[in-house]
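Narrative summary of target 7.
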Amino acid sequence: MLRLKHLSQLIALSWATLTAAHAGVSAVDIDQPNRPRSEQTDRLIVKYRDGSVAVQLQNGPALQARALAGEALTSRTEAAQRLAAPLGARLSLLRQMGTGAHVFKLDRALSVEQLQQLAAQLQASDANIEYAEPDRKMYALLTPNDSSYSSQWDLFEATGGIRAPAAWDRATGTGVVVAVIDTGHRPHADLTGQLVAGYDMITQTATANDGNGRDSDPSDPGDWSTAGECGTGQPARNSSWHGTHVAGTIAAKTNNSLGVAGIAFNAKIQPVRVLGKCGGYTSDIADGITWASGGSVSGLPANATPAKVLNLSLGGSGSCGTTTQNAVNGARSRGASVIVAAGNSNANASGFTPASCSGVVTVAATDRYGARAYYSNYGTVVALAAPGGDVRSSSSNGILSTLNAGTSTPGADNYSFYQGTSMAAPHVAGVAALLYSAKPSATPDQITAALKGSARAFPGTCSQCGTGLLDADAAITAILGGGGTTIAETEPNNSIAAAQVVNAPGTVNGGLSSNTDTDYFRISLPAGRTLSVNLGMGATLDYDLYLLNGSGTQLRASENPAGQSDSFTYINSGTSAVTVYVRVLYYSGGAGGYTLGLNW
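Modeled conformation, tokenized:
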């Protein structure tokens, strides 16, 4: 997609570090357009070979328009109309472009897919047509006007960010509820209108710290404690307002000229309070998982708005217990994805719960440069990684989100930079909400496959951090293609003859070792299907992407600069499957890894 605006830029308390406050500044609200979910256009571009002439300019050759005889244009327009007629559309010549291509207008909008098929039919019917393609509508990528958005490197920076702006062009979380199973929430201007009814699951009054036990009010009174109150030798702690910070990362109100932007800003947050003073009990947490996902909990009313995504930025030592595993199994059976933090002990996550539970999406944390954060747990149970921050050198390298200024009891709204896998998990939960809004029929397994399969290669070192770094835009492409499996590149595959056979949908994790390296992958594309290919790589790498037929003729190309992903689509408009070859070619930046997403 053409980028019209370029953006260069149980105890949860111990899993986040408060480092600095950051106040928002109000401004005039400006609405910005979003791309329609089903892309349509009423124009077609057709380039006739005799409609241009090549001229030599200072920096190389260029095409200029050459007028065609009226009679020739009339006959060609009539030919195009005959092919457009089965689509129920009338076609007329609108104008000739500066490069010589002609723009045809239809009397009704059609889907891009329909026009791609029409373009292919036109090209097949006339050898004088150099190419034909839909005249696609382009939109500015939504750039929020939230006053502190520029500090949210985790959303948009090319190196360590999750590429949220491109994803917002296709999904914003509409219709999805995300349960934040945490310390509850504080009312906050940047969360106004973003919540649905939740519940306070804490049964013990002393832990609840609000004067009673389980009730329908999930607001956070504070989880501060005095020295020794949470165990011998434990220091005094200020209130963390942890759940409020997590909620803001997922779904803070966005484009409201205030504070921060949420990842799934049109989703709703369901606060489920399970952590209070000195943490929370497994039994309360398990009930929270069950109720949030639409299950029945004795003595509680039915959840009127069950969540599709559950975020658990909490944990403790020990492998996953049966109570928690059963709750997770129940949530998944009701169609909910369970996203959990890997833990902050710089240890193998298999020794922590719920990180080691089966069926959850366990998330490690990366720093601003795409490397594993020094505190993050790791291991084979980790699904993927997301930004968690590292504030040791600067507070601005943490994750900025909504908070409260009170040190014990509630105070005024504010914003703060935190770090931790508690901050990484809600990035994945937010993107999962985007995926469910893009494909409401998706299953938890499909969401997991899309998240893992679309993750991009780590810009830094992140050993045992799962399949890669969260990529919001690529994940949407993956879920719309139906998910898929992840496979490793197999050498040698440096020619069409030696091309590695791969299936779509899926993801290939590969690498180029030198400036002469190239990789080929062979795909059988069924009739009528559109192949979507996305190439992701590290910020300093510049690898290019091509599509060829069996004769080696180039069908598509994407040659974006270093650090930017390459992508294209190609439709098989024929009546039988065709074999095509995807090529990844080294351009600059040195040896490194890449992810190749393949969908149709």
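The domain at 40-134 is CATH 3.30.70 (Alpha-Beta Plaits).
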